[in-house]
Amino acid sequence: MKLPFKEYNANPKNKRTCDCVIRALTIATGLKYEAVYKELFDISLKTGYMLNEKRVEDKFLEAHGFIKMKQPRKNDNTKYTINEIRLICKDDVIVIRCAHHLTCVKTGVLIDTWNCGYKTINNYYVLGGAK
């Protein structure tokens, strides 16, 4: 049960670089790439953590109404892959953390520069918290 995949690079210069955090958050929030980058940078300056660290992502996502969810497990204690996210979460906007990567599923479609649907979900964020 694979998720539909849409190849999309939110990087305004269409660069392939280590910017998955900015790309995923741009897709999730609908904000411009530069606005997300600046907000992450500002959080980074305030906290002293690099802008692609989980603590900075958490603050950004919380400020934009996302709720962090724990790593999901199946009844047999095995882990879910990104392709299986719809089995546990029907939300329209889901930001997913997996090993060395952050991605976004929006309205049931995995949107990224590459299809990472086979990767294991570490934790995920759903839109719906209070700002």
Produce a short descriptive summary:
By secondary structure, the chain is an alpha+beta fold. It contains 3 helices and 6 strands. The chain has a 6-stranded mixed β-sheet with strand order 1-5-4-3-6-2, with helices on one face.
Structural summary, described in words:
The protein has 131 residues and is an alpha+beta fold. It has helices at residues 20-29, 33-47, 54-63, and strands at 5-7, 66-69, 93-98, 101-106, 109-112, 123-127. It has one domain (5-127). The chain has three helices and six strands. The protein has a six-stranded mixed sheet with strand order 1-5-4-3-6-2, covered by helices on one side. The chain is globular. The termini are far apart.
Features:
131 residues, alpha+beta, globular
Unreliable segments (pLDDT under 50, ≥5 consecutive)?
A: none
Widest beta sheet: strand line-up: 1-5-4-3-6-2
Care to count the β-strands?
6
Strand share of the residues?
15-25%
Q: Level of helix content? A: 25-40%
Figure out the total of helices.
3
Listing every helix as H and every strand as E from the N terminus to the C terminus, the arrangement reads EHHHEEEEE
* Structure class: alpha+beta
Radius of gyration: 14 Å
What integer is the average pLDDT?
95
Largest sheet: 6 strands, mixed
Number of domains: 1
Distance between the termini: 34 Å
| Shape category | globular
